[in-house]
Amino acid sequence: MVEKLPLPECVYDLKNRVTLVTGAAGAIGGAICRKFLKANSRVFLTDLPGPGLENLLADFQKEFGEKVAGGVMDVTDEFSVSAGVEKVVSHFDRLDIAVLNAGIAHVSSLKDMNFSDFRKLERVNLEGIVLLLRELARHFERQATGGDIIVISTKNVFAPGACFGAYSATKAAGHQLARIASLELAPFDVRVNMVAPDAVFSDKNRPSGLWQTIGPERMRSRGLDESGLKEYYRQRNLLKVNVTAEEVANAVLFFASRQTPTTGVTIPVDGGLPEATPR
Asked: In the chain, which ranges are continuous DSSP H helix?
């Protein structure tokens, strides 16, 4: 068997660019922040208040110093979103890249779904995208230097799962809004693209909030423990790999580094799932 070579580190340089990341305290959000800081971007972390955001910010400030800052942003609150974008610009004098990562999940069949739970997902996964896209469109038009918006979508947009209707539907609606934003913002040289991951369990020692929500039900329904569930998802993709948060961050960085003239496009990061291939 031929030995696999390790993948090289990404060498994209985002010097002089400022990045906003929502939902930064989660597994994927934290990996994106780290990847962009290593790529020389200045990064503003946002999430709901609590130790998750505080600890992440403290850890990154130890390693990256003044290149990183952060603050609270509730993506469901109109004032919080507008104030959050203003804080980024006030702190770093500009904002060039926004990664819309904040999202929540819920497990329920349609017949058993509590509608208040659906509305909770609707507020975060859909209204949060609306508020952010609106505020970012206004910001980028004012700044007049172009920009990049990357929305963290999901394989469930293209291949939804049973008992995962609220998540699949609200994420699909947010995904469609991102495509519309790519049409409306192109005249301002603002590119809007999507990254669609699947089965990301953690980032190093930081667990995925989504998998903490849906993992127990998935394990019960399949009679598996945590390691067995990870193996199940590894075996179902074509490449037989466990998808990592860092690999999702690599896809986000590809869009932000403008290696190609691309907007309105989705990169799947799922190991290869034919039923979820964008088309």
From this structure: 27-38, 51-64, 78-92, 115-121, 128-143, 165-185, 209-222, 226-236, 245-256
Contact 43, 49 (CB under 8 A): no
Element (H, E) at 72: strand 68-72
CATH number of the domain at 114, please.
Answer: 3.40.50.720
Q: Tell me, yes or no, whether 275 lies in a domain.
A: no
pTM of the model: 0.92
Q: Is residue 6 part of a domain?
A: no
CB 204 within 8 A of CB 274: no
pLDDT reading at 215 higher than 60: no
Number of independent structural domains in the chain? 1
Range of the domain at 172: 18-270
Between strands 206-207 and 202-203, the pairing is: antiparallel
Question: What one-letter code names the amino acid at 186?
Answer: A
